[in-house]
């Protein structure tokens, strides 16, 4: 199993948080997907924000999070906003 930190946008702190919610490897993150992983993080770490979701999506897509398409960012923002309600 690959380390989370081997993925794009995933540093030691993000890896620690993901591991705390049961996502212990790159494969587990790919399996869960960015939105499910964000939902788990939000449950334990309410301060996670949209940038974290972008980072997770970038990790899943293997791109820098600021290289995500406008459409993808809009979709993720909609998901994040929905969780706030």
UniProtKB/TrEMBL annotation:
Residues 3-77 form the TfoX C-terminal domain. InterPro entries: TfoX-like, TfoX_C. This is TfoX C-terminal domain-containing protein. It holds the Pfam family TfoX_C. It comes from Sporofaciens musculi. It comes from the Bacteria.
């Amino acid at each position: 199993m690959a380390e989370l930190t081997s993925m794009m946008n995933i540093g030691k702190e993000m890896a620690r948080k993901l591991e705390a919610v049961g996502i212990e490897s790159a494969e587990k993150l790919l399996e869960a997907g960015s939105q499910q992983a964000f939902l788990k993080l939000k449950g334990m770490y309410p301060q996670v924000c949209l940038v974290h979701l972008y980072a997770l999506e970038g990790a899943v897509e293997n791109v820098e999070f600021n290289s995500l398409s406008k459409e993808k960012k809009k979709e993720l923002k909609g998901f994040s906003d929905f969780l706030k309600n």
